[in-house]
């Protein structure tokens, strides 16, 4: 057994999430976490809503709300959507908890004490019309290094170099298009050059990362510069130092505090378990594993900034130092980054109406249909495109006609002819061949899931389904009504194959996995789903918020990653279809919704 931290990117609480977001951070992390639990590992899956920074301020002002009111509203929307999608967080929280504030400030104080937070004067971008600081990512222009038109004030996605907003040619605000004004201000900078050797040495050991992630991360090493970790803004976590803490217009940079959320969420989870130190085996034990899931635009924050913060806290830079009260913290085992999902050939854009929100999909279609599409056709290691035509085709031909039909017709034959799982007679080579295929699937699919190759894993699981369908076609059980012994053997074998395939598909299709489990007369939880709990802030009785959590215990609510023999005599009722077939008309209906948007 291994201890595994599944650290999932924090969705920003300025609106509902669209399917491109969950294609990158949500579904892949849940598939991995579910498999690892089934395989017998102790998993801690954490995340929450990221609620600080200028974009929240801007939107709150536009909507006539306070920043906290806006964050509260979208926190709940996001919690509901991710729960309905079936993402099995141990804790999904938020960055405006008092616990998070305390953890972030402890990190800052120790990093500062160790000498890695340095004061520097810098030219920061200011909106001329509002006087408000513009975040680096909200300033765009032409890259001075490669000439790419569309570089941001923190980095150029084309050449990968770190930038400052003042470096950009023809800079403009993404919020309103105006040319920013640059004014001098004093801030704290994380001394990234002090970790160049340590970061490179660590990255050189990450040979099993996806090549695009590793190469991008290594390319950043040559251009390491101190990175601002405070901002001129009044919405965020105060800088915990005398002379700064009392300043209402100086706050920690949202990206400094957001990545620390992985640690603060782990600590909050432990406190809510009644064991305040339960997080430590996931963070302090060098044998523990940690996987960070996000889209490719956030690689630099997880393979450079966050590891540098961890090294600074541990005192493992060129200036030395010692850890604070959290002890020595583990560096990421792997940064698992997905590419981008487009929508009908266009980049997602809420402002231009090229978007479909998670809640809108789930209001009209089954959650497992979306999860399946994002697994088999999502942006795992290259950009991919979501089209309604492909969504309909894959749902109907693969889920409904492939997997769903196998389940339904086998259960129908068992119900009609026996009313229960029949006992098998002597197995023939064709029976043994199918069971050998399903048995081998556990090793093949498991190896792929453990290395984040979800596309190949779900394809292998569906190959097992295809073999079971072929078996039914070849044995023709509907013609065996006069040979009860052979009919019982065939249907018992088919039921066993379905049970095995259901386990293989459970990480991808948790909702339907439970339905298939119950179709064949089994009871209890086979594939646990998350739930929403309303909680009180651990350190402020006046604050209340929803969290995502769940009950994920191997053998009780989580099915083991192994074949579970079907039991003769188990009653099988007349089945109902597991998946809903989609009408051809939904394609034009959805495209019309996009046109209207």
UniProtKB/TrEMBL annotation:
<dbReference type="InterPro" id="IPR014729">
    <property type="entry name" value="Rossmann-like_a/b/a_fold"/>
</dbReference>
<protein>
    <recommendedName>
        <fullName>Methionine--tRNA ligase</fullName>
        <ecNumber>6.1.1.10</ecNumber>
    </recommendedName>
</protein>
<dbReference type="InterPro" id="IPR009080">
    <property type="entry name" value="tRNAsynth_Ia_anticodon-bd"/>
</dbReference>
<keyword id="KW-0963">Cytoplasm</keyword>
<feature type="binding site">
    <location>
        <position position="146"/>
    </location>
    <ligand>
        <name>Zn(2+)</name>
    </ligand>
</feature>
<keyword id="KW-0648">Protein biosynthesis</keyword>
<dbReference type="InterPro" id="IPR023458">
    <property type="entry name" value="Met-tRNA_ligase_1"/>
</dbReference>
<keyword id="KW-0862">Zinc</keyword>
<comment type="similarity">
    <text>Belongs to the class-I aminoacyl-tRNA synthetase family. MetG type 1 subfamily.</text>
</comment>
<dbReference type="InterPro" id="IPR015413">
    <property type="entry name" value="Methionyl/Leucyl_tRNA_Synth"/>
</dbReference>
<dbReference type="GO" id="GO:0005524">
    <property type="term" value="F:ATP binding"/>
</dbReference>
<feature type="binding site">
    <location>
        <position position="350"/>
    </location>
    <ligand>
        <name>ATP</name>
    </ligand>
</feature>
<feature type="binding site">
    <location>
        <position position="159"/>
    </location>
    <ligand>
        <name>Zn(2+)</name>
    </ligand>
</feature>
<keyword id="KW-0067">ATP-binding</keyword>
<feature type="short sequence motif" description="'HIGH' region">
    <location>
        <begin position="11"/>
        <end position="21"/>
    </location>
</feature>
<keyword id="KW-0547">Nucleotide-binding</keyword>
<dbReference type="InterPro" id="IPR029038">
    <property type="entry name" value="MetRS_Zn"/>
</dbReference>
<dbReference type="InterPro" id="IPR041872">
    <property type="entry name" value="Anticodon_Met"/>
</dbReference>
<comment type="function">
    <text>Is required not only for elongation of protein synthesis but also for the initiation of all mRNA translation through initiator tRNA(fMet) aminoacylation.</text>
</comment>
<dbReference type="GO" id="GO:0005829">
    <property type="term" value="C:cytosol"/>
</dbReference>
<dbReference type="Pfam" id="PF09334">
    <property type="entry name" value="tRNA-synt_1g"/>
</dbReference>
<dbReference type="GO" id="GO:0004825">
    <property type="term" value="F:methionine-tRNA ligase activity"/>
</dbReference>
<comment type="subunit">
    <text>Monomer.</text>
</comment>
<dbReference type="InterPro" id="IPR033911">
    <property type="entry name" value="MetRS_core"/>
</dbReference>
<feature type="domain" description="Methionyl/Leucyl tRNA synthetase">
    <location>
        <begin position="7"/>
        <end position="410"/>
    </location>
</feature>
<feature type="short sequence motif" description="'KMSKS' region">
    <location>
        <begin position="347"/>
        <end position="351"/>
    </location>
</feature>
<keyword id="KW-0479">Metal-binding</keyword>
<dbReference type="GO" id="GO:0006431">
    <property type="term" value="P:methionyl-tRNA aminoacylation"/>
</dbReference>
<dbReference type="InterPro" id="IPR014758">
    <property type="entry name" value="Met-tRNA_synth"/>
</dbReference>
<dbReference type="GO" id="GO:0046872">
    <property type="term" value="F:metal ion binding"/>
</dbReference>
<keyword id="KW-0030">Aminoacyl-tRNA synthetase</keyword>
<feature type="binding site">
    <location>
        <position position="156"/>
    </location>
    <ligand>
        <name>Zn(2+)</name>
    </ligand>
</feature>
<keyword id="KW-0436">Ligase</keyword>
<feature type="binding site">
    <location>
        <position position="143"/>
    </location>
    <ligand>
        <name>Zn(2+)</name>
    </ligand>
</feature>
């Amino acid at each position: 057994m291994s201890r595994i931290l599944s650290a999932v990117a924090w969705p920003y609480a300025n609106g509902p999430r669209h399917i491109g977001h969950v294609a990158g951070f949500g579904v892949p992390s849940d598939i991995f976490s579910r498999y690892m639990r089934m395989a017998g590992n102790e998993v801690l899956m954490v995340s929450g809503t990221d609620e600080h920074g200028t974009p929240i301020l801007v939107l709150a002002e536009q909507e006539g709300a306070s920043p906290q009111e806006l964050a509260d509203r979208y926190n709940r929307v996001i919690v509901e959507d991710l729960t309905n999608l079936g993402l099995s967080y141990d804790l999904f929280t938020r960055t405006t908890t008092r616990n998070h504030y305390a953890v972030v400030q402890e990190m800052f104080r120790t990093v500062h004490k160790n000498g890695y937070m340095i004061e520097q004067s810098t030219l920061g971008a200011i909106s001329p019309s509002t006087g408000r600081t513009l975040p680096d990512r909200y300033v765009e222009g032409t890259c001075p290094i490669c000439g790419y038109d569309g570089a941001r004030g923190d980095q150029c996605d084309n050449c990968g170099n770190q930038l400052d907003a003042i470096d950009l040619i023809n800079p403009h605000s993404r919020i309103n298009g105006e040319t920013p004004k640059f004014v001098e201000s004093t801030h704290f900078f994380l001394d990234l050059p002090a970790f160049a050797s340590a970061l490179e040495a660590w990255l050189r050991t990450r040979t099993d990362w996806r090549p695009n992630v590793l190469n991008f991360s290594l390319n950043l090493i040559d251009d390491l510069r101190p990175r601002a970790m405070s901002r001129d803004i009044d919405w965020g976590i105060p800088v915990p130092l005398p002379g700064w803490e009392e300043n209402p217009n100086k706050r920690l940079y949202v990206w400094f505090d957001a990545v620390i959320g992985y640690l603060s969420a782990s600590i909050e989870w432990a406190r809510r378990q009644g064991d305040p130190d339960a997080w430590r085996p996931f963070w302090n034990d060098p044998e523990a594993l940690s996987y960070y899931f996000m889209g490719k635009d956030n690689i630099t924050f997880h393979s450079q900034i966050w590891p540098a913060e961890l090294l600074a806290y541990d005192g493992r830079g060129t200036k030395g130092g010692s850890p604070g009260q959290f002890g020595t913290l583990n560096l990421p085992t792997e940064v698992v980054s997905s590419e981008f999902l487009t929508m009908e050939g266009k980049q997602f854009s809420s402002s231009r109406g090229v978007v479909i929100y998670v809640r809108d999909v789930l209001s009209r279609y089954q959650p497992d249909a979306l999860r399946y599409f994002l697994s088999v056709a999502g942006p795992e290691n290259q950009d991919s495109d979501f089209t309604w035509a492909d969504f309909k085709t894959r749902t109907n031909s693969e889920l409904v006609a492939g997997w769903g039909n196998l389940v339904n017709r086998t259960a129908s034959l068992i119900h009609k002819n026996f009313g229960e799982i029949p006992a098998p007679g002597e197995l023939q080579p064709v029976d043994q061949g199918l069971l050998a295929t399903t048995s081998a699937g556990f090793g093949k699919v498991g190896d792929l899931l453990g290395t984040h190759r979800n596309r190949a894993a779900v394809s292998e699981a569906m190959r097992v389904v295809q073999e079971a369908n072929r078996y039914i076609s070849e044995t023709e059980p509907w013609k065996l009504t006069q040979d009860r012994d052979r009919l019982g053997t065939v249907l018992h074998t088919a039921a066993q194959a379905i049970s095995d395939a259901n386990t293989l598909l459970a990480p991808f299709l948790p909702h339907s996995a439970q339905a298939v489990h119950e179709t064949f007369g089994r009871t209890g939880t086979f594939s646990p789903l998350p739930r929403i709990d309303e909680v009180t802030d651990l350190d402020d009785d006046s604050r209340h918020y929803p969290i995502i959590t769940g009950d994920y215990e191997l053998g009780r609510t989580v099915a083991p990653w192994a074949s579970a023999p079907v039991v003769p005599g188990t009653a099988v009722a007349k089945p109902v279809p597991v998946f809903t077939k989609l009408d051809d008309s939904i394609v034009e209906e959805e495209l019309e919704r996009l046109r209207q948007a």
